[in-house]
Amino acid sequence: MKQYDSRLISVGGDLNIAMQKYAGGSKTPVLCIPGLTRNASDFDDLAPKIAAAGRDVITVSLRGRGRSDWDLNYLNYHPEIYRNDVLTVLDAFGVRQAIFVGTSLGGIVTMAAHAFAPERVKAAVLNDIGPELAPEGIARIAGYVGAGAGAGPATSLEEAAARIRAVNEVAFPDASDAEWLVFARRTFSETDAGEWVLDYDPNIARALMELGPAPDLWPAFESLKAIPTLVLRGGLSDLLSPEIVYKMREVHPDFDYAEVPRIGHAPMMTEPAAWAALETFLAEID
Length: 286
Fold this sequence. Notes:
This protein is α/β, with parallel strands linked by helices. The protein has two domains: 224 residues, Rossmann fold (3-Layer(aba) Sandwich), CATH 3.40.50.1820; 54 residues, no CATH class. It is 36% helix and 21% strand.
């Protein structure tokens, strides 16, 4: 049985953003924004859990990912453009205010959205991301984004899973073979020829190299003091270090926090520790 409605939302310039809406109820809806090379499918397990608690959930694939259109101008692969896109998606549904749940890049977009239009963000969840990025994590991400395209298509889902496992096993050391297949299905897409290719525009790597991962985010993060904020960190994360979390506390002492053991960058938020923290956080918001 289909759990959600899918739509393409025009964000201008003949470019469409793919989204999925899960019907859940009348409480403040949740907007889920994925990481750098990921798409809305990352929330296929999380979104129904949130919806079951009485909220509509909108999950998006940012431009250049998943079913969203690729941008012919790669310089548009930038947090400020993504910010505008997700606000346009909310406008398309008449949603004036939402709880933003952002993984990695999605958390950067969340901070940018609140700094730009604070009335649109009722609460924020930053999943394994902060206003400063640990250099080890940046180096690792820069090393794999776009690199897979040079290896050519995978001939099977199993080969795709082996490739994605080689890159990400350090972050998910306990994942099973079946879980790696799910991971691959959410990261690759199958062509008409039966091959499997990474499900994002390789030019995202070009934009990352030329534009950097993000502008100065500390002012945007500090602005979150005005709203409920939850920070989740993978216990093995190389992008959000304990030292950065400490610095975040100095700027925003009151955010909720949970660490997810035996997980790196980034938790799926369905892990017991992550879901317990998120469920409690959401329960306190209308």
